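Researcher: I'd like a structural prediction for the single chain below. Treat it as a standalone chain; there are no partners to consider.
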Amino acid sequence: MKNKANRILLIGYRATGKTAVGKELSRMLGCPFRDLDKLIEQTEGKDISTIVEEKGWDGFRAIEKKLLGEMAESDKKFVLACGGGAVLHMEQMEIFSKRAAIVWLKAPVETMLKRLLSDRNTPKLRPSLTGKEPREEIEDVYNERRPLYEEFAHITVDTEDKSPFQIAQEICEALKYGW
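Model: Treating it as a single chain, here is the predicted structure.
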């Protein structure tokens, strides 16, 4: 069986710190960092908002699913920060659950809302999923996805009031002790 700790998958809702923690974790582990949303943008040559505007969420999810599948089949060592909806791709997540350590980064709704509203890149990187007001969207979508985050996570880390460095250290400790 392949060593799951050679591939780390970070899942969680928007604004839980997947990218910041992923960069720190990859530095600590000495392996490459990949951001699934950035890979999608590079593949398409457009930002996420433009992709969603042109292809809709279904088109975006199809691209995400294809790239996630390629990463799931890879034998390369990496830390991968996924978009919040990556857990919707059940087949790919099942493969990852056998071949990677899956870490769910979570935060309270109020914290996610505050982070989203204070990030000037949110409109470009995080187009609305539902057209609802931000708090209502977070509550609705997070509650829908939460069972999937729980199902796939080998490790769960609350990111509230912790730096990316502290969170990455916590993940390294869990990996060291076999989570």
